[in-house]
Design a protein that fits this description.
By secondary structure, the chain is α+β, with helices and mostly antiparallel strands. The chain is 35% helix and 17% strand. It contains three helices and five strands, in the order E-E-E-E-H-E-H-H. The protein is elongated.
């Protein structure tokens, strides 16, 4: 079971994990072992609550295909087990990130003191700039 929160869990059967060969430069080891992990998770057929499914399917994210399948490729580590853990952790963080409730912004007003400070600063700058003009000689 993959735990998303206290009340939400994903059964292991809903996540397809495949070992593949990692990309990039390597030595003799990389050519004969499959250490990278390819994780696939179908949102539509999962046992996630409807609220989670709606939020995930509505999100425009590069890891979610138009068919509603999350595809994660993990190849940071040299061990297959560590890559598997990294892929599952990325899946959990993706689901948490996209289903987090955004705080609504409350409009605020500037205080009277802050308005007065701003106006005092403006008049101070105005005075400073007006003194930068040409100096006239008394005749």
């Amino acid at each position: 079971m993959i735990s998303i929160s206290r009340s939400v869990e994903i059964p292991d059967q809903e996540v397809t994990i495949t070992a593949i060969r990692a990309q990039g430069a390597g030595g003799q080891h990389v050519n004969k072992t499959s250490t990278a992990i390819h994780l696939r998770f179908d949102i539509r057929t999962s046992s996630l609550p409807e609220y989670y499914k709606e939020r995930l399917l509505a999100a425009s994210h590069h890891l979610i295909t138009p068919d509603g399948v999350v595809v994660i490729k993990a190849q940071e580590y040299r061990s297959q087990e560590m890559n598997r853990e990294a892929a599952v952790a990325r899946l959990v963080s993706l689901i948490k990130e996209l289903t987090a409730e955004q705080k609504s912004r409350r409009a605020t007003r500037p205080t009277r003191a802050s308005k007065e400070r701003r106006l005092a600063s403006k008049s101070q700058k105005s005075t400073t700039k007006s003194l930068r003009g040409k100096v006239r000689r008394p005749e």
